[in-house]
Write the structure tokens for this entry.
Amino acid sequence: MKKIYLTYFLLIVLSACGSKKTDSVSLNGEIKGLGNDTLYLYGADELYNRMDTLIAKDGKFSATLSTDTLVAVWLLFSDGTEYPLFMDKRDKIQIKGSAAELTSLDITGNICNEELTTFQNSLKGLAKPSDKVLEEKAEAFISSHHSSLASIYLLEKYFVQKPRPDYALIKKLTDRMTGKLKDRPYIDELLNRIQEEEKVSVGKTAPYFHLPNIKGKDISRSDFTGKYLLIHFWASWDQQSREANAGLRQVYKKEQKNKNFALLGISLDIDRKMWKETIKKDTLSWEQTCDFTGFQTEAAKQFAIQTLPANVLLNPDGRIEGKNMSKEAIEKKLKEIEKDKNANH
């Protein structure tokens, strides 16, 4: 009798072990020219909240991974290149490619990987496609692949990561996705971001804010009542911000005596000394404010600032007149303001 129970027990254990193995993900890769290297695999969101190390020898690597559901992860190479990968339990993922072209790998093992591989291959015959062409192809893919995780990747790459995202288009594209995709954490966060962006779109009343200037005095929106106010979000650690400040310096030099216009800098610095040194070094003579909390600055949240540099133009009534305007667009707008002023006198 003991032998019967023991045999039954062993069958249960072996069955459980076998089930666990069956549910695992098998991953094998071969990248020609990669040599010996260390790669990392980490989750694109909290559905895969860990990092795995993959050791490549002569360009070949393999791993057995576990996941309870379909997840999106990043394959990170030592040169900093990241490539999207999708995997689910029981998948057998095959990765092929060349170290000379890590941004276009051939990945099979489930439909999402294969759909993205097909999309990437379709770009190879386009020579040097314009951003518009790439966006059109990405939009066509998303519109015809409503439930593919590859659609989320393309949405992020070609639309969300643009310097000036078109949130109306992004929302239209997400509306086409199935509920299964919309339930993903990334889409949930993106839709929340769009909702915040819509609160501060052109034509809306700007939120009230106050921040300390370089002397510690609180500066608020009401200090500029009756003027067109250009708010510039920047940081000393961001080179593009400093380049934008150089352009604004030219604008301010022309307009500093204009009683109908004001310029306000809101820095997302966290280092007071560096902030002050940069203001002096870059000769930023207009009003500057900072509370040294970085992107946690309340004003950055209120205006839905996601990237730097960024700017918002308010009219004398406190309504948003323009956003993320170029130096040329700012100068053109100021000429229009001056023209309207003269016409009303």
About this structure: Residues 1-21 have pLDDT under 50 and may be disordered. The domain at 205-343 is CATH 3.40.30.10 (Glutaredoxin). The two ends are 108 Å apart (CA to CA).
